[in-house]
Amino acid sequence: MRAQLFVLLVVVSSVQALTPYHGKLIHSGWGAIVDHGLTGDTYAVNENTIQIIGFSYDGNPPGGVFLLGTDKKYSAVTGAATRDPTATIIANPDGNFQALGRYDNENITLRLPPGQVLTDYTYISVWCRNFTVYFGGFDIPEGFVSPKPQNLGPLTHRAHAVYSGDVTIIDDKTISILNLRYDGQGPDAFFYVGVTDSVTTQVAPYGKIPDENGDSGVISGYAGKNITITLPDNLSFTQLKWFSLYCILFTQNFGEVFIPENLNVPPALDVAAASTTAGATTTTMAAPVMNCEPLSNKLQISWGVEDNSIAFELAGIIDRETDYMAFGLSGSDSTFQMRNADVVVGYWKSGETAKAVDYYITSYAQCAPNGGACPDTSVSNGGANDVTNIEGQFSEGVLRIKYKRSLTTGDSRDKEYKISGPGQHIVWAIGPLNSNDETAKHYPSAGRISIAKTIQFGRDMVNNCPELAVKTTVAPIPDFKPHHLYGTEDLTVFTLEIGQAGSTQGYLALTGIQSWGIAWYVNGILIPELHLKRGVSYTFRVGGGTDSNNGARYHPLYFTNDIKGGFLQTQGSTETIYEGTVDGVSQQYATGGYCEWKLTEAAVQATLSGKVYQTFEEFKQDMYLDCDNSSHYTDFIFTPDSSTPDLIYYQCYTHKSLGWKVHVYDELPTESPSSTTQAGSSASGIDSTSKQSRFKGSSAHSINQSKLAKYVIFLIAIVSITLF
Questions:
Q1: How far is CA 350 from the centre of its chain?
Q2: pTM above the 0.70 mark?
Q3: What are the boundaries of each domain within the chain?
Q4: Which class for 720: exposed (0-12), middle (13-18), buried (19 or more C-beta within 10 A)?
Q5: Rounded to whole angstroms, how far apart are CA atoms 592 and 578?
Q6: Portion of the chain with pLDDT greater than 70, in percent
Q7: pLDDT tens, 143-165?
């Protein structure tokens, strides 16, 4: 009991409130001598952005500015009566060079001049240009390393075809995964984070996190997709030790990356603020956006006028990783016209944040030096990006991007948003981004017909938009029919490999039990019911893996009276094991080189696009058998006798719910159910006798007893701690 209490205390003590992460601390306070109420702690957000937490300054006398030295130490200039000639004045939190006003314990963000980084400077100070005196300052530590995204490498491949390209922590709440692959067959799989030294089940607030769409349900498959995941508000990657794909129901890790200690990445909220253009330092819009018009059933525009500017929210049902959405003023004052249109293109930059880019379309063509659908800042347009205050959110399949611009910018490539007079003609589009993160031709159904064709932007507030929701209607999925294999006295060989469980229409439909996502295939068939005769010796050629250090590919076959099996997980006292032999030696279980029935890449793509298999036979046609080269199958000889019950189960010794029923008779029935095959025949069109040639080796390989013994000792130790 004391040991049990100790474990509980350890778990609870690890669940702590999240300490706000502001970046990497440069200096706390403003030095030994400060004037005018100067306070605050200064952090690096990234190499060209800093923020000051709890900044106070009385604003009197006027003339205070932020002055950064490029050569000298602060101690060398603090007593001087003149300005350090090597120092640079940087823009204030409002993005201009006016004197600082009064601040009272506020958080502010500062951007360095274009092309400059923090290591170009030696000190940070507040200096009065009216009286040429320093109010406070400090040195930037030598060798200071600013926060930046951290590449963790690919996910470790452990199970369910999990692979990826680079996994990168972009900021303390955002992680990017390139080329993610996962077969989608885990029954209770989630993106999962933890604070333990190894990947294991966690206590809230750690554990499962929403997927790239903000959804909290079981994740589906991925076929080489780039995704970006954002942590909930109460978590930060700076407090975590690993990120994984994890099956909660079966406590299985499908693949992970470990997070280094003292993670030095940008803080999420501050990066969002710093990514805006000059003059934009807030992370929330100044006024609510209440007007709304639907542009199509997938796109809506909301807006509100604020003095001489206009704030927008563009919301669309798009693929966040590949698509853009665009809205703006038509190139014609009398009709819908893309040519000469002034639009803003919004998208989610993979691994970063929301983007909103000012575009001017000179022709209906790809952007080139001679024009096309190009950003205002392109060579062909020669303008400026006048979009500011950019925010983004992706939830339940809907991307929302907020942005702001002046009604009249003075840029020749920008049209005026009018708040009086008749409505203005608008344009919009949804389409794919090209490799340069610029617009490609919009999708055929997008941009041509708009529910709203003109908008009067100065009208009284009216919301005409229905709720944007992703359609989730799914066609009925048929259950696979059960199969039966009969072992006669002349046909006594069964070949067992691992394969896809077939989701809800496969293992779950056949057994009523949730599987791990894989299952036994017998003679190429998903969990057929076996029919055996007492007194006949049957050969079970086992290909479930031999590496006990890799649980995802280690599935010893055994016979049991437990409907779910997995003896090693429970050490069930009521369970009976029916032994067989390997090379004439009695064994409770047997292992052999690993073989797995996998879906082809084309089939994975098809299922991700909504393909539904009508039968197991159709499902099987899209599979291939993938075997490692560790060893042969193992021949596990099982002879049911008079002590064998009429119903037992073939299962996995280390995991639950991989196999199904074995019916045992004194005489095999003469009438067989439908979908019946004899033991040695090839029901699936696979010649079971030829598969051994896939393995390299000269002899059958029985279970590695020493490795399994260590595994058993480890589990017994865990059970002992719990009991005592």
A1: 11
A2: no
A3: 24-139, 150-258, 280-455, 484-710
A4: exposed
A5: 19
A6: 81
A7: 999 999 999 999 998 989 899 98
